[in-house]
Design goal:
This protein is mainly alpha-helical and 137 residues long. The protein has helices at 2-11, 19-35, 56-69, 118-125. The N and C termini lie far apart (56 Å).
Length: 137
């Protein structure tokens, strides 16, 4: 439209941004979107960016892949797994052990199928219902 042409013309003044830069940016952004069929209309096909990937099968796969890819500690001196019979106390630090932050907002927003708090997992592993934690601010 005339309004958008006027805006681009204004932005295209020397030393601001050239039409070639705008065209290259639009091409870089829109080309993969067209290749994925985002402008074709109709329901998303399997494997498309709009496909539902929150099925129980997808959630199980995501959990499995995350568990297999994490390295939290080095197992020096065969310390792990912890011998539950030989351990009297386990210290867990940080509010995130009780209420983990699991995602952000915007384009990174995700609604997980479940959230496992680290403290709950440790309690389950040690088969205990220890007293409520004392969280220091």
């Amino acid at each position: 439209t005339h309004a958008s042409t006027h805006t681009l013309t204004t932005l295209s003044l020397p030393f601001v941004v050239s039409v070639a830069v705008v065209n290259a940016s639009v091409l870089r952004i829109l080309t993969p979107m067209f290749r994925m069929g985002l402008f074709d209309g109709g329901p998303p096909s399997k494997g498309s960016i709009g496909a539902n990937v929150t099925s129980p099968e997808h959630n199980a796969l995501a959990r499995s892949l995350a568990a297999k890819s994490m390295v939290l500690l080095q197992n020096n001196n065969s310390t792990l797994p912890i011998n539950k019979a030989a351990v009297n106390t386990v210290a867990v630090f940080g509010e995130q052990a009780i209420s983990p932050i699991i995602h952000g907002d915007g384009s990174g927003q995700v609604f997980p199928a479940y959230v496992s708090a680290p403290l709950d997992a440790i309690r389950a592993a040690f088969e205990t219902s220890t007293p409520a934690p004392n969280v220091c601010g």
